[in-house]
Structures are given as C-alpha cells and as structure tokens.
Amino acid sequence: MTATATRFPIDLGAYQPLKLDPANPKLSDEQRKTLQANIQLCRDTIVFFTATGGARGVGGHTGGAYDTVPEVMILDAFFRGKADQFVPIFFDEAGHRVATQYLMASIYGELPAEKLVQYRAAGSTLPGHPELGLTPGIKFSSGRLGHMWPFVNGIALANPGKTVFCLGSDGAQQEGDDAEAARLAVAQHINIKLLIDDNDVTIAGHPSQYLPGFSVSRTLEGHGLTVLEGDGEDLDGLYARICQAVDTPGPVAVVNKRSMAVGIEGVEGTTHGHDVIPVKSAIQYLESRGQAAAADFLKGIEKPKQTYTFMGSSDKVGSNRNVFGEVMVEILGEMSERDRKNKVLVVDNDLEGSCGLKQIHDAFPEIFISGGIQERGNLSAAAGFGMEEGKQGVYATFSAFLEMSISEITMARLNKVNLLCHFSHSGIDDMADNTCHFGINNMFADGGLDDSYPNSLYFPADANQMRACVKAVFNDPGLRFIFSTRSKVPMVLDESGNEMFGGDYTFTPGKDEVIREGKAGYIVSFGSALYRAIDAVERLKQEGIEVGLINKSTLNAVDEDSMAKVGAAPFVLVVEEFNRRTGLGSRFGSLLLERGLTPKYAHLGTHEEGSGGLWEQFPHQGLDPESIMKKVKQLMK
C-alpha cells in the first residue's frame, strides 16, 4: 500500500475548527461537544497511523501523543481564536510524541493525510521524532528528553507579550535540564506555560515505584512555579486550568493526571502504552470505534523484509545489547552474594529492556537501581560507587545520550573510578527514530589525556565477540565503554565459513582482528558496518580484487602490528556508522601519518540527516556494500 495510491481511511475533514478565548474559562455546551468530537477523531487517527508503523516493523510511539490530545485541541482553538496572543506552535519536550505534530500538520493542510500511513518508513520524511526542515508542517526539532523546555524559554524571551506553551511529561521532568529551565523561568518571569502529562508511565516502569518521593507538582512548586494540577480527562476542568494559566503572568505548570492510553483495552495504564500500540490492540480499538476501514487497512499491511544476502556472515543473528546482559548475569552469578553486593552496583536509566540490564535486574535486584531518566546524575552515581578499589559501577543507556554525559565522564576519569558502561543503539542501524537518536559521536568518550586513568572503547562485531569482550574486560580497572547496535547482527565468518569469534576465541583488548587478508588495500571497520564490509570484500574478490578487512573492535587503542600492515598497503578505507566528523576515520589518517605511513586514504561514515526506516539508513548514508565497493574502486585508480 502506498500513500499516493491509498485513500486515508479516517475522514480528517470531520475535524471542526474551533475558536476559543482563554479570557472565558467556561465552555459552552456546543464548544464542549465540538472539543469532544475533535478529541475522539484525533485519538482514533493517532492509534491508526502509529499502528501502521508497528505493522511495518519500524515501531513508533502511540500513548503519549494519544494522551495529550485534549490539551492540543484546546491550544489549537486558542491559536485560531486569539492568534496574536500566542506563539502558535505545539512545542513538545517528548519528541517521541511526534504523531501529534504530523497529525496537526495534516489538519492544517501542510501534510497530506494519505502520507501519515508511511509513519517512520524509510524515505517518507516522517521519522520517529520531529525534524525541522525535513517534514512539511513541522516547526521545531525535538527528541531528547529535558532539552525542549530550556529552548522554549528562549522562544518566549524572543516573543515578549506573547504566551508560549510547551507540552511536557513526567519523564522529561526527571531530567536535570528541566530543573535549570524552571529556575530560569521563575527568575526571569518568563511567560511560559507547561502542560505536563503526568501518567506515571515511562519506558521501563512507573515513576511512583522507581522514584518514590518524586512529585512533578511539588518539584515545580519548589522551583517557584505556579502549579495547577488536575484530571487531564476532565475536559471542563482541564480547559479552566489552561485558561487560568494563560491569565496568570509568568511561568505556570498545568499538571494533568491521567492513565496512560486511557480507554485502550489491554494497553491503558501499562508501560506498553509508551511505545507503539500492538496491531491487534489497534484493530480491536478501531473496530470498537466504528473505524472499520482503518482496521482493515492495518490488516492488509505486510512487513517489508531485507532480501539482500550478505556474504561472509551467517544467517544466524544475535542481539549484542541483550547478550551484554546475559554475560553479565553469568559473571555476577559466579560471585558470592556478599561480594556481589559489596563490589557491584548496576544503575539503569529507564532503558533496562533496551540495554540488556533487565536480565540483571531480574537475577540480582539487590544490586540494581532503577535510576529514572537522569543520565548525568546516574552515571556519576555509578562512577562514585566504583571509586573505591575492588568496587565498580555498571551503567547503561542509549549511545545518543553519551553526548549528555561528557562532563560526568571527565570527572569520573579524574577520580580514577572503575566504571563499566554499556551504550546500546550505537550507530544508525534500525534507527527509525532518526537523527536525534543516532549514536554517532561515541568517540567523545575518549576525551582523556595520554597519562589519564584507563579509558577504553569497545565495539564487538557480533554476539560471540560481545560475550568474549564482556568477560575479558569486566575486571579491568578504569572506564570501559562497550557499544552495541539496536539491530541484531549476523555472526562473522572466517574464510572457511566458521564463526570467527566462536569456540575458544578469546578477546584481547587493544588488538585488531584480521578478518580477511588482501593485497589491493585494506578496509578498517567495526560494529554493524563490519558485516557489510565483509560482503563488499567477498564480492570484490569475485571480481578479482583482493581487499583485506580489519575489525577494529577496540576503537581508541593503536595496534602497531595492524597499523604497519594496513599502512604498507596501497590504500586504507575506514568504513563506520559513526559521524564522519568525529568518528574513527577522522583520526585514523593522522595515526598513519604519525608513523610515516602514506597509503591512499579515505573514510566513509554518517554524514547526512537520517531517512527513517531500519536497514535503509545504511544505503542512505552510502555505507551499504555497493557503496563500499564503489569507493574501493575509486581508490584503486
């Protein structure tokens, strides 16, 4: 089914534009009826088109956007009724609620409704977080929690005399950035109104359980904001509180209590509501709402499959991010209970299911902390635990958030701590969330000096090497960063077709692995770019071009033997999914020159904003086997 050939199965023409004046805090019966109809129409639509992403396997987020529809409908009516009084943008801290932005762009006629069914698909320009300049009708970029309120403070300062709204969440409010934004808003009397969806659900659990004592309302009151708390599903009460917020000078937080995904059977109130609604649940919901055409549309979607067959790697795939947790459980299980509790502390950032930490949580809850969405403070807590000799902290989150913690990493290094970090979702593979969630600046973690405390970066090539790597470096001193992809990756095979890192393989930190020997030149790669590079090497060999391949699984150590080997070759090509400006390739040429080695040199890496989709990100960046082969042939001229 294509957006251009298929009629959108929900009639968005039924949307009734409404004008409201916040000076009148009481809804008439007709206004309430119109709002209720718009709310239901938009909630049905969000369930439908986000579920198309789930049906195609690109995921998405339903619950947050679904939750905040009442607030958005009220804001839309304000923007239409008193345009000169507001900055008419639905700023949202939670970029994963992007369905709101796409829906409103469609209602305003800036985005064809038919395009919504390509939600998060490759090349659709509808990625999993809003990106300014990419999608028609999108007026800001968002995606990393805690970043939007501080930004919108500036928007308000740039628009004196106007009211600016920012949609927030209880998850975003856990971030330290929001505390700083609150203090500035109060001190400068910034006319910003926070509409906070307080549904007590984040990715991994319920804030009331893993952060007992934390209250969004009391925290904001402590910063000095006026806080108006109430039931987000009580339309009259919600409207009155938003009107009061507009009428109150300075910063105001309207905190809206509600159950996540209210009214969706089997999803309401659960953590499943945070992500994309299951297709089965969406169909059941839509049919109950009389949206049979939309339900039938979902039934007809087929999940696209990658049909390319990669040479040099197995059909069997493994999830490195989950293998990290499996191996950690094995290692911790070999310790006595007393040693485990005394020597190890594991700190999660609301991503335990995505980073492999859930397995540790389930097996050894006594050493596990659900730290919430507080990347900076949690890293420092884990690091502080590991300051004493014989102890170590373990920490995990997405690689995109490594950038948020560079200063904490520096302080951990200066305090000579023992800290094992797992940053999953590295690179770009399977990243429909798109650019803001790319983990491409991981080399920032290598910010120490030549004489600093040990600081090592590892990127295992497959599940076998991940297992060997974790076992090898678990007891090492210093900071250790282990990276993994969101995607599952195949097992690397040797030239005989055997698993290269299986059997009795032992991981040696700092040592590069020769995957294939070659006379024409060498490719240096790692991560999920490696098996694509193997395929390119194998296909080049079929053309009579013998190119070698090096797996640089320790990213920030120089293997002199390996450098001498590749440096003596006619060319060296670094292929990586990290940022071309900051990745391995940006420094590898200098390492060669420092040793008097002068092969032809080039490097391929992520250099453009994303295109959505999953594996499609690689050809979009020119990192697929065909692109690698083309670059090799250019270097050989």
TrEMBL record:
Its cofactor is Mn(2+); thiamine diphosphate; Mg(2+). Pfam families: Transket_pyr, Transketolase_C, Transketolase_N. Residues 318-491 form the Transketolase-like pyrimidine-binding domain. It comes from the Bacteria. Gene3D superfamilies: 3.40.50.920, 3.40.50.970. GO terms for cellular component: cytoplasm. Belongs to the transketolase family. This is Transketolase.
